[in-house]
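Page 37, top half.
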Amino acid sequence: MATIREVAKRADVAPMTVSRVINRPETVAEATRERVQRAIRDLNYVPNRLGLGLRNKQTMVIALVVGDISNPFATEQILGVSEAAKSQGYNLIFAHTDSSPEEELAQLRHLVERRVDGIVLSPVLNTPDAVRFVQEQGVPIVVLDYPMPDNDVDVVRSDSEDGAHRLTQYLIDLGHTRIAMLSGTEQAVTARERAAGYRAAMQAAGLSEDIRFGAFSIASGYAMAGDVLTAKDRPTALVTASNFIGLGAARRARDLGLRIPEDVSVVTFDNIGTEIAFDPFFTGMVQPVRELAALATDMLLERATERHEGPGRDVVRLMELDTHSSAAGPHPG
């Protein structure tokens, strides 16, 4: 294995110059930089990042913690964080908590022990304990998706309440008056916010509301849809708080012999990738997930490199209504 001294000898420079080319190439003259880079390629030299990290008190590694790796939403988060980290010379590791607060804390403890330079957390709940633990260890952290009113922390998220309001209003504008809301666990702030947005739209239109809380899963969507779609005065449209709930609800509707959208319209959130799982493709509110994840990473690295100090920042983006063929006006009669 080639050493930095061998690279320096081949390029006819000092070892310190090789180190600068690797770590701060913009500080080295172009001709010298190219000569060193050519020597690195010729000798297949691999820098000792661990040694560099020990000297600089950095590992050049950040972490992303997600709740449900099976959800395409999490895949988009991983891609967004990975691309942003790579562009700044950092590597990424990620952890999956299986939507368990206990597992989340265990994974965070493990990452702190690994001495990662920072953590992007897509939390299970918006309770303060997990963020507080990381901050007490002196590790920078940024939260994706959830408002964190009890923590002084950077947050990057979409406006779930506004998204649910606009999604419900879309159904009202199509002529629906019996609309049910199938949401996730009431412990999750996004489930409550999306229910609140639905409620506000229904109340403004003078319509009766029907909110069901369950879990952000296909099985829960299937079960909740079974309850509302077998009622005597069943709804003609369903607002579902996640793509998985929407999938479960749509499958239950079909099992009951109901056509989408002729007999019941189904709309959802985060309909990323569901075109491969269900036809018709869902109308829904889409978050710029990859963009938000990249922004969270940039904010994290600003903290990690001490380019930004001060109180936590709350960055909120609006969702986009993406219309497809799962929603239409109510069928006459």
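Page 37, bottom half:
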Amino acid sequence: MKVLLLGFGAVGQAFARLIERRRADLYARHALSPSLVGVVDSRGAAADPRGLDVEALLEAKRRGGTVAALAAHGVHGVSVEAFIVESEAQVVVEATPTSVAAPGAALARLKAAFRGGKHVVCVNKGPLAVAFPALLELARHNRVAFRFSGTVGGGTPVLALAQECVRGDRVLSARAVLNGTTNFILWRMDRHGEDYDAALAEAVRLGYAETDPSADVDGIDSATKLVILANGVLGHPCVLGDVAVTGIRGVTREHVLAAREQGQVVRLVAELDGGLSVAPREIPADSPLHVPANLNALSLTLETGGEVALVGRGAGGPETATAILRDLIDIWHAIGSPR
């Protein structure tokens, strides 16, 4: 299977390493032999229809700051949409950084892939947050596969679990903790009695939060993931503007400690129960959403099956790379692998 990888940061590099490490296993178990025929980063691209050498790509990126530095195969000043259309790839992997505020470039790349008849694996949440129903329709119209499991939960198969549940049952409501940064902050406030600023500083120090954590602490990241869950699995067409969002900046140490005295904990909960909302909620200490540190959790209430929950690690380079590979295998079997 020929793959075009868009984005060669932490996630893209982790994915390239993963397919090399798993190559023998992928062929033995799935008759799948993925080949990177193109890679694009913010400063250029590299291409070879016979497949690029992963170690050489990583070295070019390390030494030259871009895959365009790869001898004989590097290209500077590319038009990414044209590069997508002209590529021999069967699958495009969109792994560039998420920007909900400015998703236009990523949207254009996805549209170019669909219109070029290429299947897509996307881990960039931005275009899905603002145009998910339209993207699903465009993929259907062009008869290509569109997978996005890495956008919610990283390597933890949150969307896969939800999809399996809805196959034979009806989801009455969904509640989830979908952002590891805010969960870590609220967990520190509860466990260590810290105020918001101290807990945030510790999250930044440990690498759980960006220097500008606005998308996380203001609830935008959780709302984006809720939109993806609602559209992609639960059959609830929506965009980011449909979600009522409240972040955690206003949560005080006193609020957290008062909740603890009542046998409750405060968590940033994304909820689909009639409407769509993200807000700090007090939940029982024995709730499946009461997870420590930077973990994520999903709880579905089913009409027949009752409550089903999943807990796991959220986003990260290696974790998200496993989700990309999971989607790639899914597409491989869907389009008719030899086995």
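Margin note: The mean pLDDT is 94.
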